[in-house]
Amino acid sequence: MNRALITGAAGGVGEALAKRLTKEGYGLVLTDRDEAALKRVALTLPQQAELIIADLRSEEDLGRLCDRIEDVRVPVDLLVNNAGMIVPGPVGTVPDDLMRAHVDINMTAPMVLSAAAARSMKARKSGYIFSIMSLAAVGPMKNSASYSASKFGLRGFMAALAMELHPHSVGVGGLFPSAIDTPMLAAEMANPDGSPLNFIGNAKPLTPDEIADHTVRAITKGKLETWLPSSDGFMASLMMMFPSLLRPVVSYLEKQGEKKKQAYLKALR
What we know:
Elements: E1 3-7, H1 12-23, E2 27-32, H2 35-43, E3 50-53, H3 59-69, E4 78-81, H4 96-124, E5 128-132, H5 145-165, E6 171-177, H6 183-190, H7 208-221, E7 225-228, H8 230-241, H9 246-268
Parallel strand pairs: 1-2, 1-4, 2-3, 4-5, 5-6, 6-7
């Protein structure tokens, strides 16, 4: 049986991925820092999952996860870097440690875990490394500079890794969604600085189940990048080709997205 290790598996997209990959025949290794929530997810699954309680900001915990990934007795065939965080705020108002936390969780931890997976999978000449990213990795979000920087960095890492691992028959890919209907989105939007760009082009946020389905399709097709929606990814890429237009175009898009943001917040009340 193939095994998948999923980070951030205690709810939201991680939980949906666990249930979807179980249907695909994967054995599961689930990790999160929230032990109670992780155990709750495990109880909803039709098969027993291996649980690892770990904080991705801890070098010791990251080391334990890397050791598990490289364990040749029960190899991990699919690594899904799903854990992430975002706390909006203008540069200069976000505490230094919170800026570092964005980089630690959204970029450094996936890089370290992916490196462990690369070592193990290269030796076996099989496997897949997949990251749940964000369209903020394609185009930046004002008032979320740390988040954007961490996602931009991870995108570059994954693209380079894909070129390195292709000769070894190891797949690499990523999903770049706009808004996803999770508690993390609700918390982000409740913050006055939460970006209305989350709602550009979407009638409503994607569900965790939809993200899980898109992930399986992307892995099956072997796609390096999947933008959701693709039109938003194209727009973000186009803007980055003409940086001088970034500010006026984003300002216009924010005004369009603000209406949907307010409708989303009203529905939460």
